[in-house]
UniProtKB/TrEMBL annotation:
Keywords (A to Z) from UniProt: Membrane, Transmembrane, Transmembrane helix
Transmembrane domains' residue ranges: 28-56
Domain TM2: 2-51
Protein name from the UniProt record: TM2 domain-containing protein
Membrane protein topology class: Multi-pass membrane protein
InterPro entries assigned to the protein according to its UniProt record, in alphabetical order: TM2 (IPR007829)
Localization in the cell: Membrane
Main localisation: membrane
Superkingdom of this protein's organism: Bacteria
Amino acid sequence: MKDKTTAALLAFFLGGLGVHRFYLGQTGVVFLCLLFCWTFIPAFIAFIDFIIFLTVSKESFDYKYNRAYFQQPIVKNYVPTPPPPSKGMSSEIEYVL
């Protein structure tokens, strides 16, 4: 299970190489970070990620990055059966056209 503090520290110290994204399982972004690491753009984006990881709630982080670790409740499809027709006055009225 991934931890948001670990992701934030990786973003701060090794974010220019995309290590924090590799930790979070986003390998395509890591390739782009390695391709453009000489421009320092990935380092700037990693610093923004560092701030976001520190400010986001644990529930939001878990929902985005740890969804596979939490089982979603299985809801069975339940189709209720209609109630039996009543034998009241309305069932005895006939409509004549």
